[in-house]
Amino acid sequence: MRRAFVKAGLDPDQGVLEVRVPSPDITVTAAAALEDVLGAADPPTAIVCLNDTAALGVIGGLRERGIAVPGEMSVVGYDDVAFAAQLAPPLTTVWQPKRELGRVAAELLLDESRPGHRHQKLVYRPRLVVRDSTAPPRR
User: Fold this and answer.
1) Could you give the CA distance from residue 63 to residue 82 in angstroms, rounded to a whole number?
2) Strands 127-129 and 46-48
3) I need a surface site. Which of 24, 44, 59, 79 has the fewest CB within 10 A?
4) Quick one: pLDDT at residue 121?
5) C-alpha to C-alpha distance for 76 and 132, rounded to whole angstroms
6) Which stretches of the chain score pLDDT less than 50?
7) Could you give the CA distance from residue 3 to residue 13 in angstroms, rounded to a whole number?
8) pLDDT at residue 139, rounded to an integer
9) For residues 69 and 66, what is the distance between their CA atoms, to the nearest angstrom?
10) In angstroms, rounded to a whole number, what is the distance separating the alpha carbons of residues 47 and 129?
11) 39 CB-contact burial (10 Å; exposed 0-12 / middle 13-18 / buried 19+)
């Protein structure tokens, strides 16, 4: 995200607010982390979550506070899990080839035990799946 800001000619220190959430029950902790986000001196117009489950918690927390998604705040998840398209609103998310990643990771791990193996660097490109949880900012 920081690289994208720089590439767009923007200062990531001015536009990116990182909020860490503990992993147990991420939907609850992500919703609770909204206090840090919404209480910022210059609150953001979008929240990018570490995964779709966190995004579910954020959307619920925003709804409880009367903040419309995407009207007042855009929300993006990561993973494109099965429920992402069924949320209200359907979640904009980043898709990645989960099965392929798992298969290749297992193959690479097994390959480590073979004499003379060579390390490989494989890069998979995620894909943005735009749905209804995002819109241009009003301000």
Assistant:
1) 21
2) unpaired
3) 24
4) 87
5) 10
6) none
7) 11
8) 63
9) 9
10) 15
11) exposed
Pairing of strands 46-48, 74-76: parallel
- The two tokens of residue 77 are 């998840």
The answer for residues whose C-beta is within 8 angstroms of residue 121's C-beta and 6 or more apart is: none
CA distances from 84 to 22, 24, 93, 100 (A): 22, 20, 8, 20
* Three-state helix/strand/coil letters over the chain: CHHHHHHCCCCHHHHCCCCCCCCCCHHHHHHHCHHHHHCCCCCCCEEECCCHHHHHHHHHHHHHCCCCCCCCCEEECCECCHHHHHCCCCCEEEECCHHHHHHHHHHHHHHHCCCCCCCCCCCCCCEEECCCCCCCCCC
Amino acid at 10: L
Instruction: Kindly state the tokens that stand for 15.
Output: 């536009």
pTM: predicted TM-score of the whole model, two decimal places: 0.86
One-letter amino acid at 16 equals V
Burial class, 94, CB count within 10 angstroms (exposed 0-12 / middle 13-18 / buried 19+): middle
